[in-house]
Specification:
The chain has 12 helices and 23 strands. It has about 475 residues and is of the alpha/beta class.
Length: about 475
Amino acid sequence: MFGMNRSIGFKITTTLITTLTTLLFSGAARAIPAPPVQQFVQVWLTTFDASSKLERQTPIPLKSAAQSTLEGIVISVDPRKTFQEIDGFGASLTDSSAWLLANKLSVGAREEVLQKLFSPTQGINLSFLRQPIGASDFALNNYTYDDLAAGQTDPTLEKFSIAHDQQYIIPLLKRILQINPAVKIMGTPWSPPAWMKTTESVIKGYLKPQAYDWLARYLVKYVAAYALEGIPIYAVSLQNEPSFEPAGYPGMRMTPQDQIEVVKRLGPMLKAAGFATKILIWDHNWDQPEFPNAVLVDKMARGYIAGTAFHCYAGEPPAQSVVQKANPDKEIYFTECSGGAWDKSFRSNLQWIAKKLMIDTLQNSSRTAVLWNLALDENYGPQNGGCTNCRGVITVNQGSGKIDYNVEYYALGQASSFVHSGAKRIASSLNSTTLFSVAFKNTDGSRVLMVANSVLSDEDITVTDGNSNFAAVVPGNGVISFVWK
């Protein structure tokens, strides 16, 4: 009898445990919703007084549309509506910049600088370089890749050589590509060899009519020579600032018809050589959109032209949209602007670069935002007959080797650190006369919103994509970037 009771008790206990287990792990139990995982928006800020320089802020909770109301200035982002693909942000590793980095820094200091400029994880992820083809106004001397004695010519370019660049420009480019393989390189001549020009000099002049073939072959030789070094050239433009003939440094004037004639030769030559290098025209200021439009009316030439490049020294960014709307199948690039000693205010430079050179250019179809010299010294050089007070993205003190990361570095970084090559600009809108913004979607699905505040007072904002919202404060005259998924 006692044994029977033990058996019954065991069965009851087993049944109870089974019942409890079933209740705990049944579908009914799983139907109890787990608390949602809170998502956050990452935030980086640069302030006008330089108290914060591209510094990470406290993350902001991302809420569903049902959880929050839209207060303050509303910025609407629509990731479903996409525009141009982004190639990148950067500057120019001019002869002067490369010489300083190669000769005025220790190996360790140079590596640290390159990491801070180009690394996607340790730096600001610069990903576009516009390289002079030969000397510019920032070089140690005038040179091209086929310099001859007066009166000589070399139509077949047998004496073409990039030996000058192999000294320090190419080694630096190779290291940069190791640090960030996504970097794209564009080449631009300030002047072709003197024997191709009406002045028989790299200073002033036009291209000789018989030199259309020569210049086209010269550019193909450049692309091929760099390819042999393991450096692909993503794009070339035909001439830096073709509507200007500087008196003190290399330059050349080109007409729209000159560019048409060169493109008609360069396009087939590049294709025959097996290069996919893009051809860009103009590469000058916003104030003459009629120039690229005049080139693009030629049906044969336009077939080889990828797009138009612009500079900042005259006119306004909407000129880019004038050209793009007239030629919707062609791309837009913003490729040069320099700050300098004429304005040493961190505040005004931050606003100028962030709003006009980045937000406005990108809102007006540009695939790039590119400044001028990557590095200059404490005397704004070495100079080669041009600008005497232009400022680099960084300053390298020739005497001490000290590095200063200038306002350009932080302004670029507010976008380049988060907007990756291959991202697309997405629709964004706000009703404000004080805030300016641009938004992107990276290939990994993350979204980036860059906002510049043009007034001294802080501004409350709410950012919404229709499904989720977040609230934030944009400090007066500050530039802020938000990243979220």
